[in-house]
Amino acid sequence: MTRRGGAGPRLARFIVAMAARIVDARRRSEWRREWEAELWVASERGRPVLRHALGAFRHAFSVRRHAPIEAPAAGARRFEPVRFSWLDVKLGLRMLAKYPGLSSVSVIGMSVAIAIGVAAFSIIASMMETTLPLPEGDRVVALRNAILTEPGRNRASLRDLEAWRELGSRPPLVASPGRLGCTQPARGVRPGTRARA
Amino acid sequence: MAVLVALAEGVSYGFDIMDATGLPSGTVYPILARFESRGLAESDWEDPRVPREESRPARKYYRITAAGRSALAAELERFRVRGLPLPRLT
């Protein structure tokens, strides 16, 4: 039997090989044989082989979905969750008592590893999770403009953000657990504007 | 339904079913897989001597089952009652 060369048929065979991974392992070789024949015919009849090969994915999914559920073969290995046993605990403790040197090295090693992990996490967290430049900035989750004179309008601009940043470094911005209040008009913030935190 | 009609007409090879129905491979083969799982069609590999003589890969042929024929008859009746146009093979 002749194998057609060229980039198209080669790519088509590659596509079919990829799609074959979707099919259940027990049916894969037969499924692939069928598609090898299909590609051969497509190539023989001068049809677009790549387009034809793309259909293999839908077929593979369909075969997988409609595969009958078969009972596992006798002696087949099945997944079984690990069961807790007091015997394991007893034997573990006995081993630790029997080899105190190894036990202490293990305990010290784990302690050092945990300490290094915690320190590294703290440093990275402090570098990456920067707080907003506001009093109690770590507690602020959102900033919002509420124009008291015009209740329907509630928009914030980049200029407002600049104004908030500027206010954050100065006393006029009043912070409370629930709210941030602006006691004097700032650039880009209308009088009576209130920011929520 | 067009695929079932094609099978009933004796078109048994996947590629020929595509040609007869005008449907793409991504439609025909999943339908055939579904028919097989529901017992409406069954498939068989051709005699290995034939492809060897013709120097080509072996083909898998599909054929309609008795259940498939009765399902097709019921479907055709439904089409007739509703006055829908019956699927035609190209």
Q: Notable features of this structure?
A:
heterodimer, A: 197 residues, alpha+beta, 4-stranded antiparallel sheet, 4 strands, disordered C terminus, B: 90 residues, mainly alpha, Arc Repressor Mutant, subunit A, two-stranded antiparallel sheet, 2 strands
Describe the protein in words.
The complex is a heterodimer of chains A (197) and B (90). With 197 residues, chain A is α+β, with helices and mostly antiparallel strands. Chain A has three domains: 7-66; 86-128; 137-196, no CATH class. In chain A, 53% of the residues lie in helices and 8% in strands. Chain A has a four-stranded antiparallel β-sheet with strand order 1-4-3-2, covered by helices on one side. In chain A, strand 2 and strand 3 (179-182) form a beta hairpin. In chain A, helix 1 packs antiparallel against helix 2. Chain A starts with 6 loop residues before the first helix and ends with a strand. By secondary structure, chain B is mainly alpha-helical. Chain B has one domain: Winged helix-like DNA-binding domain superfamily/Winged helix DNA-binding domain (Arc Repressor Mutant, subunit A, Orthogonal Bundle). In chain B, 58% of the residues lie in helices and 11% in strands. Chain B has five helices and two strands; from the N terminus they run H-H-H-E-H-E-H. In chain B, strands 1-2 form a two-stranded antiparallel sheet. The longest helix of chain B has 17 residues, at 66-82. The chains are: A alpha+beta (197), B mainly alpha (90).
Helix run count of chain B: 5
Q: How many strands appear in the DSSP assignment of chain A? A: 4
Q: State mean pLDDT of chain B (0 to 100 scale).
A: 84
Average residue pLDDT of chain A: 74
Widest sheet: strand ordering of chain B:
1-2
Distance between the termini of chain A: 75 Å
CATH superfamily of chain B, by name, is Winged helix-like DNA-binding domain superfamily/Winged helix DNA-binding domain
User: How does the overall form of chain A come out from the CA principal axes?
Assistant: flat
**Overall strand count of chain B:** 2
In quaternary terms, these chains amount to heterodimer
- Count of discrete structural domains of chain A: 3
What structural class do helix, strand and pairing data of chain A support?
alpha+beta
The rounded Rg of chain A comes to 34 Å
